[in-house]
Amino acid sequence: MHAVVRFFGAFLAAAMLAPASGMQKVISQYGETIIVPCNNGDNKPSDLIFTKWKYTKDDGSSGDLLVKQAQKDDAKVSATDGYKDRINITDNSSLLITKATLGDQRVFTCMVVSINNLDEYPVEVEVRKRPSAPEIKNKASQLENDKLTPLGECVTADANPPAEIIWLKNNKTLLNDNKTVIITPNIATDPVTGLSSTKSSLQYTAGKQDMTSQFACLVRHVTGPDQVTAPVAFSIHYPTEKVSLQVVPASTVKEGDNVTLKCQADGNPPPTSLNFHIKGKKVAVTGSGVYTLSGVTRADSGEYKCSLPDNDKIEATATVTVTYLDLSLIPSGRVLKKYGESLEVKVEKNSSSEPTVTWTKNNSKLEKQPDFSKLTYGHAGMYVCEMSVAGIKRSASFHLVVEGIPVITRLTKQQSTDGKNKVLICEAEGSPQPNVQWSVNGTNSESSYVNGKATYRLTVVPTMNLTVTCQVANNLGLDSKTINVSSLIDDRRKEKQDLPEDEDKAKLIVGVVVGLLVAAAVVGIIYWLYMKRRQGSWKTGEKEMGTSEESKKLEENSHRPDV
Ligand SMILES: *[C@@H]1O[C@H](CO)[C@@H](O)[C@H](O)[C@H]1NC(C)=O
Ligand SMILES: *[C@@H]1O[C@H](CO)[C@@H](O)[C@H](O)[C@H]1NC(C)=O
Ligand SMILES: *[C@@H]1O[C@H](CO)[C@@H](O)[C@H](O)[C@H]1NC(C)=O
Ligand SMILES: *[C@@H]1O[C@H](CO)[C@@H](O)[C@H](O)[C@H]1NC(C)=O
Ligand SMILES: *[C@@H]1O[C@H](CO)[C@@H](O)[C@H](O)[C@H]1NC(C)=O
Ligand SMILES: *[C@@H]1O[C@H](CO)[C@@H](O)[C@H](O)[C@H]1NC(C)=O
Ligand SMILES: *[C@@H]1O[C@H](CO)[C@@H](O)[C@H](O)[C@H]1NC(C)=O
Ligand SMILES: *[C@@H]1O[C@H](CO)[C@@H](O)[C@H](O)[C@H]1NC(C)=O
Ligand SMILES: *[C@@H]1O[C@H](CO)[C@@H](O)[C@H](O)[C@H]1NC(C)=O
Ligand SMILES: *[C@@H]1O[C@H](CO)[C@@H](O)[C@H](O)[C@H]1NC(C)=O
């Protein structure tokens, strides 16, 4: 049916039906030309005299329209009313009526008059008009939750027959239940054109779920497919039932941080003002419901609340925990102590939770807090204590300096391998770094100083027996020691007697002996030489004075208390 209408479309737009009465029916579109057929084209008997079209007036009487003589080309219009300028007849005797109006909905009769007959073919004309696209008017700005609210009016104009309006929510038909949904239709007819305009008012009870609902209005009409408005959505107003309070940052808050309290109400629209309960004080905050605690301290830890200004019972609670860490270290700065003294180190802390503690000395990690019950030069250095709890790090430090009068720990001599000179080694402890003074002139004077231990070297070429004094001194005091050094000339003489100069030489020979032993070829000779050397040594009892002095010193040193 619709397809047919569309097929004839713009120019003819007519369709034929056979009504129950048996009378033929023609449907035409408003404003277009109506074609009223005469006996479906079978209307030209051979003895035709003329064809005449007439119509039935509103009062039931008959009115003439036109007459066409069989022999003539033109028809004679006999109408005197509005039809006078709107009608014509086709070659197959169809009546044409231009600019169809609703007034043309009546019965037109074709009279075929021949010599032997007079036939009448009445045709009923119906004029249809497709309604305008629907529009939603007087749209509500928002809907009240759980309250019947006029949502809008849907209008569609100038239809015939009247159009039907259907409200849709999410593409589903909304049905009137006279309670939560009330749909009031209204049809108005234009007194001039007779066309109908349909209006439908929708009152709707929204729920929160309708925040996402899409409303649309659909117009249904015999003339064609449904016409639908673009969907519209509404904001639903509902009161706040719950507030929530959020702390940002949600993770650890440390002293100095800025903390934001965000209070949110679930109503729509949200309340314009909210109350924050800050440390027993009520603070009204308008706008977005944000309260900022800037630069928090440990005193800001605790419970916070927010509530509705007009209803304290609707409230939310949040806890803020501010982590903190204070560290104080006694002593601090530069600490000067004497060798052998003790140093008490006091670490005091206040923290929100047990901190992790690390100690470093000169940037290298220590296992634990150092023990300074008896200070040595090795204790000197930069000490740093670092503590940390959740995101906070604190450190404190002191620079320990250990001072002491220099003490010579060892005074030894070594003959160079070529036997041309002797190296004197004077080892001492003391801080600040002691200066050395030798009682003899020498060459290649060297010194090193590490952790309070000083080592001084001096190379001498003794041409005679020497008594050498090593003296070490700093601003706190001095120490000295003496060593006897035999002349190189005497040494050479002794060498000729195959006597070892000192332990080193002996060791060297032992090394050679061992090498020979390994060779295993001359075991007997080696054994003999070995025995001979030992005999010689015991026989002469020759031993460097310095060597015995040296071992004595070493022994002394190992027993000496640390001062
Ligand atoms: C009469 O002629 C027109 C073309 O002039 C045609 O469209 C129409 O179908 C014809 N009517 C009948 C009933 O044959
Ligand atoms: C009626 O139609 C004929 C052709 O079918 C045309 O020649 C004539 O001018 C038309 N008359 C009117 C009044 O339109
Ligand atoms: C309604 O139906 C149309 C097409 O039929 C579709 O595009 C639209 O997404 C649907 N809307 C909803 C809310 O389902
Ligand atoms: C709504 O009320 C009208 C009259 O007030 C009644 O005709 C109609 O049947 C009712 N509809 C429903 C669904 O109750
Ligand atoms: C806290 O906020 C102030 C401005 O209100 C800003 O200057 C400061 O840098 C912020 N502090 C932190 C730790 O973000
Ligand atoms: C720790 O807190 C107490 C009491 O508030 C205070 O007296 C002390 O000085 C604090 N200690 C440190 C290391 O800040
Ligand atoms: C530690 O540093 C100090 C200077 O800060 C330095 O005198 C000392 O020798 C260093 N100690 C160690 C063990 O490196
Ligand atoms: C060491 O040499 C200086 C000159 O370089 C000289 O004055 C001094 O007497 C010498 N001392 C000894 C002990 O030989
Ligand atoms: C050097 O001392 C040694 C004993 O240690 C002695 O035998 C030698 O004669 C002395 N030489 C001189 C030149 O005094
Ligand atoms: C050094 O030799 C002298 C004699 O030449 C002697 O009196 C003195 O005790 C010796 N010193 C040492 C430390 O052996």
- In total, the number of strands is 42
How many independent structural domains?
Answer: 5
Name of the CATH first level of the largest domain: Mainly Beta
* Major sheet characteristics: 8 strands, mixed
Low-confidence stretches: 1-20, 536-563
Kindly report the oligomeric state of this protein: single chain
Structural class: mainly beta
Shape: rod-shaped
Helix content: 10-25%
Fourth-tier CATH superfamily name of the largest domain: Immunoglobulins
What average pLDDT do the residues reach?
86
Distance between the ends:
123 Å
Walk me through the topology.
Layout: H1 2-8, E1 14-17, E2 24-29, E3 34-36, E4 48-56, E5 62-69, E6 76-77, E7 87-89, E8 95-97, E9 107-114, E10 118-128, E11 135-137, E12 142-144, E13 149-159, E14 164-169, E15 172-173, E16 181-189, E17 196-204, E18 215-221, E19 224-228, E20 235-237, E21 243-248, E22 253-254, E23 259-265, E24 273-278, E25 281-286, E26 290-293, E27 302-308, E28 311-320, E29 322-323, E30 325-330, E31 333-338, E32 346-351, E33 356-361, E34 364-366, E35 381-389, E36 392-415, E37 422-431, E38 435-438, E39 443-450, E40 453-460, E41 466-474, E42 477-485, H2 488-496, H3 503-519, H4 523-540, H5 545-559
This protein binds 2-acetamido-2-deoxy-beta-D-glucopyranose (10 copies).
InterPro entries: CD80_C2-set, Ig-like_dom, Ig-like_dom_sf, Ig-like_fold, Ig/MHC_CS, Ig_sub, Ig_sub2, Surface_Rcpt/Adhesion_Mol
Main location: membrane
Pfam families: C2-set_2 (PF08205), Ig_3 (PF13927)
Overview of this protein structure:
The protein has 563 residues and is mainly beta. It folds into 5 domains: 2-128, Immunoglobulins (Immunoglobulin-like, Sandwich), CATH 2.60.40; 135-237, Immunoglobulins (Immunoglobulin-like, Sandwich), CATH 2.60.40.10; 243-323, Immunoglobulin-like (Sandwich), CATH 2.60.40.10; 325-402, Immunoglobulins (Immunoglobulin-like), CATH 2.60.40; 403-489, Immunoglobulin-like (Sandwich). It binds 2-acetamido-2-deoxy-beta-D-glucopyranose (NAG) (10 copies). Residues 464-465, 486-487, 490, 545 line the site of one 2-acetamido-2-deoxy-beta-D-glucopyranose.
